[in-house]
TrEMBL record:
Belongs to the RecA family. RadA subfamily. Pfam families: AAA_25, ChlI, Zn_ribbon_LapB. Keywords: ATP-binding, DNA damage, DNA repair, DNA-binding, Hydrolase, Metal-binding, Nucleotide-binding, Stress response, Zinc, Zinc-finger. The middle region has homology to RecA with ATPase motifs including the RadA KNRFG motif, while the C-terminus is homologous to Lon protease. Plays a role in repairing double-strand DNA breaks, probably involving stabilizing or processing branched DNA or blocked replication forks. DNA-dependent ATPase involved in processing of recombination intermediates, plays a role in repairing DNA breaks. Stimulates the branch migration of RecA-mediated strand transfer reactions, allowing the 3' invading strand to extend heteroduplex DNA faster. Binds ssDNA in the presence of ADP but not other nucleotides, has ATPase activity that is stimulated by ssDNA and various branched DNA structures, but inhibited by SSB. Does not have RecA's homology-searching function. ATP binds at G100, E101, P102, G103, I104, G105, K106, S107. Residues 362-499 are annotated as: Lon-protease-like. Signal peptide: none annotated. A motif (RadA KNRFG motif) lies at residues 263-267. This is DNA repair protein RadA. It comes from the Bacteria. The lineage of its organism: Bacteria, Bacillati, Actinomycetota, Actinomycetes, Micrococcales. InterPro entries: AAA+_ATPase, DNA_repair_RadA, P-loop_NTPase, RecA_ATP-bd, Ribosomal_Su5_D2-typ_SF, Ribsml_uS5_D2-typ_fold_subgr, Rubredoxin_2.
Length: 499
């Protein structure tokens, strides 16, 4: 009886996500909380059933110094921004997962890469072959997109297939250098139960494709779907098995798309690739700062320029604010592209530490070009834009500001100050107000660098234009010579507003 009771208490079910075991089936894992991941594993999951097998001479382990590393070198894709994210290009045998929301441009980018690779010549002097497996569209639909973006090549092979077995057969027949699967959730194996896109199917499909990639030295690009919360659909095992996981981000109402590596076994995860998505396809944007700035002849109140870091890449961005008298009982706080709680905190700091009366005003804050900024370095530019709109004082052109603001009104240093300054100077800006830091900062030629410790001094310094003093000196000379009419409020308000 004791042995029978012990057998009944043996865990027979395990969660495929976290490995949690239970003696009976449940719909939701008791450890990680995922639904539909608990499956039967047998009566004794701890018993080892795999024994050692004989190893041939060709299979024996070799010293690491004898391994040929030349087979794992990068091959550029022809898309510079994607090469930046991947660390240099595609590596034979690597499996890359591209994930993003529907309609964000994943298929367009991958098809463009396929066309670029198929137009390249390999080391043997022949064209590189690419196999594009589509499970979501027909071959004719993919051909139309290829014509539109200019990705048609003689060695780019296309098949519309959802059966895993036939897809593997296509790989054996064509023997390509690169395989594209669009998408991994649409392939299905007849040897495994479950519908396409399910946990068991994705596990089987990914394992088979990864095995084919590693054994044949084929670079494999997998397109993956995401769930409502932005995570990659399917088991987390898929992210662990692949070599590179790239996340495709972007606003549907903006042409800018960003690709960043969440996981990269061959390079850094700090790089970000910027692309411009249009009707003619998707193109690399080497200098995306212009997409986040508005051009104007004269400075306008309520705007401030900052430098944000996307990974290790500095990007100039513009913050706009509008402060108007509230007509209702409760003032409105509307934010776009920034974190609402942080903007509300900055409004409170401006009220308390700078004496700006914003308690009865509606405040609208937004970024330009659909950019989303979450790093605290944008605090100073947001505060300056709000103060500029409230006092109707435009920030002089050529000035930038960045820095984190604390509740006490102090200005805190942020990472990458030197990189931000260098990028601003490269794009034609000549003055920056930044937090005081112990770093040895060097200002480029003709660039003025001002370090401040609190938001009050920083905003006041930002509003002052050194060129205005020269204008006033010239005006004094003119007034001595004779009467003249000037409008000092147009773009350059009296100093009493900001002092």
């Amino acid at each position: 009886m004791a042995s029978s009771s012990s057998s009944r208490r043996t865990p027979n079910y395990r969660c495929t996500e976290c490995g949690w075991t239970t003696i009976k089936w449940v719909g939701r894992c008791g450890e990680c909380g995922e639904w539909g991941t608990v499956t039967e594993i047998g009566t004794d999951p701890t018993a080892g059933r795999t024994t050692a097998t004989a190893v041939t001479e060709a299979q024996r382990a070799v010293p690491i110094s004898d391994v040929d590393a030349s087979a794992a070198r990068f091959h550029p894709t022809g898309v510079s921004e994607l090469d930046r994210v991947l660390g240099g290009g595609l590596i034979p045998g690597a499996v890359i997962l591209m994930a993003g929301e529907p309609g964000i441009g994943k298929s367009t980018l991958v098809l463009d890469v396929a066309g670029q690779v198929a137009s390249q010549t390999g080391e043997d002097g022949t064209r590189r072959k690419v196999l594009y497996i589509t499970g979501e569209e027909s071959a004719a639909q993919v051909r139309l997109r290829a014509d539109r973006i200019g990705a048609v090549a003689d060695t780019l092979f296309l098949t519309a297939e959802t059966d895993l077995g036939r897809a593997l057969g296509q790989i054996e027949v064509i023997d390509p250098d690169v395989v594209v699967v669009d998408s991994v959730q649409t392939l299905q194996s007849t040897e495994v139960e479950g519908t396409a896109g399910g946990v068991n199917q994705i596990r089987e499909v990914s394992a088979a494709l990864i095995k084919a990639a590693k054994t044949r030295g084929i670079t494999t690009l997998l397109i993956g779907h995401v769930t409502k919360d932005g995570s990659i659909a399917g088991p987390r095992l898929l992210e662990h098995l692949v070599d590179v996981v790239c996340q495709f981000d972007g606003d549907r109402h903006s042409r800018l798309r960003m690709v960043r590596a969440v996981k990269n076994r061959y390079g850094s995860t700090d790089e970000v690739g910027c692309f411009d998505l249009s009707d003619a396809g998707i193109h690399s944007v080497e200098d995306p700062s212009g997409l986040f700035l508005t051009s104007g002849a004269d400075p306008v109140e309520g705007t401030a320029i900052t430098v944000t870091l996307e990974g290790r890449r500095p990007l100039l961005a513009e913050v706009q604010a509008l402060v108007s008298q509230s007509e209702g009982g409760t003032p409105r706080r509307t934010v776009s592209g920034l974190e609402t709680p942080r903007v509300n905190m900055l409004i409170a700091v401006l009220v308390r530490r700078m004496g700006l009366n914003l308690t009865r005003d509606d405040v609208y804050v937004s970024t330009v070009g659909g950019m989303k900024m979450a790093e605290p370095a944008a605090d100073l530019s947001v505060a300056a834009a709000i103060a500029s709109s409230k006092t109707e004082t435009p920030i002089p052109s050529g000035a930038i500001a960045f820095g984190e603001i604390g509740l006490a009104g102090e200005l805190r240093p942020v990472p990458g100050i030197q990189r931000r300054i260098t990028e601003a100077a490269r794009l034609g800006f000549d003055r920056a107000v930044v937090p005081a830091t112990t770093e040895g900062l060097t200002a480029p030629d003709g660039f003025t660098l001002v370090q401040k410790t609190n938001v009050k001094d920083a905003v006041r310094t930002l509003f002052r234009d050194p060129r205005r003093a020269q204008r006033r000196e010239a005006r004094v000379v003119e007034e001595i010579a004779g009467p003249s009419h000037h409008d000092d409020a147009r773009g350059y308000p009296p100093l009493s507003i900001i002092e």
